[in-house]
Amino acid sequence: MTTDISRQVLAFAALRLESWLETMRGPEGYGGPVVHWWQDNLLYTGPGLDWRYEGIILGYLNLYRGTGDPRWLDRARRAGEDLLRGQLLSGNFRASCFEANPDTGGTPHEAACDVALLRLARALRNQGDPAWEVFAEAARCNLWGYILSVLWDEDRRAFRNLPADPTFVPNKAATIVEALLAWADLTGETEVVDRYVLPTLDGILAAQVRSPGSPLDGAIDQGVWREKGTGRYFPFYIARCVPALFLGHERTGRTAYQDAALAAVSFILRFRFPDGSFPQVVYRDGRMNRYPQWVAGVGDILRAMEEARRYGMEVRLEPTQAWLLRGVQLHGGVATAHGFGAVESQQRPPDRPDLRDLLPVCGWADKAFRYMTGAVHGTHYLPDPQSPVEVEMDCVFRGERCLYQETTAAIEIRGERGWRYRWVKGTPWAEVGPSPSFIAESAENAEKGKPPRNFRRQGSVVRG
Length: 464
Known about the structure:
By secondary structure, this protein is of the alpha+beta class. The protein has helices at 4-23, 52-67, 70-85, 109-126, 132-151, 170-187, 191-206, 235-239, 242-252, 255-270, 298-310, 318-326, 355-358, 362-373, 436-448, and strands at 25-26, 29-30, 152-153, 158-159, 224-225, 228-229, 232-233, 281-283, 288-289, 293-294, 337-338, 391-397, 400-406, 410-415, 418-424, 431-432. Strands 12-13-14-15-16 form a five-stranded antiparallel sheet. The longest helix has 20 residues, at 4-23. It is globular.
């Protein structure tokens, strides 16, 4: 996978990240605020039964395979039990929409949970543990109760993005493919492969740019509706298509899937910056949004690169590994991004980072966790358990210079005139304090006898 030195560094970082993840657990699962390119949700901080469970469970299974230590299998099982407790009669999972939590029915989030449940079921079955059937049944209820019955469009032979959105989104569909193939591997049932998996993989091929010599060759469109793509190519989401394409090749022997996966990785590497990072999105007309650049999320890009290397592609991992490791913070969490403060200008980010850059988020950190735990083989170089370190870092929050503070028990953002944001870990909601502009506007409008313009917005999702 990597050199011995890199393996040791990644393994150490993985154990530190695991220690931080433990501080993010509440009574019903892993919680915390969410930031995203699409929107942020800093208010709902309860457990999110979304794609964070994919990386967390599979990361723990990596640790178990790499060390043989049963405590890691126990922690994977504990995370799986969070999903069992949070499953609805419909088969959906509570709070499965990540940045739109606590809504349910999230894509690709519920399929990502299914992948994790099925891989956990397989590990338990290999140990002779009859509990594997309970976890497999939870995944089956979601697959047949929601994904196949609600999202599948039989006429188009494609998955919808959401029940009311017919867009085919390749990376989300690829996660469904992984879940269905995990089901087929676990149970021996192959009908789902012919009926759902192969048409979906072919749909991903149709969404890929194949134009030798073009910088866009290998890119996979973010979304397709009525055979027309959006013309937006996200390296991170393209990377999430790669494992499904390789799995499709392994199951069918079709070289088209392998070629598509290798071309996708080639596209991603073509746009890698010298520091190992990637742009957020590349457009059909050649424009590019560099910021924000994912830090923790590049764990999924590194997994795609590792897969391509396994198929003989020459890939330098070190620049992107270094980019990821630079984001590891003193308490073990991993920074989410770089450049949220430059989203509008797309110029060099300010020296003082945006809060959204620094803030570790379970649903991004899990991707780093899954990748880095793959470096763990044996126990001789693993660090002793350490108490999480408290951190303080300067940042900008809602236009104000602030101090970001995180401890084992809480996250707090403090401005010059008091706190601006506070979350006690384990609680389902955070508090957002008024900004200076909000205070000034409140005073002005109070004299006029009316609420401030953004009064309602203070109690809703905090958007980027």
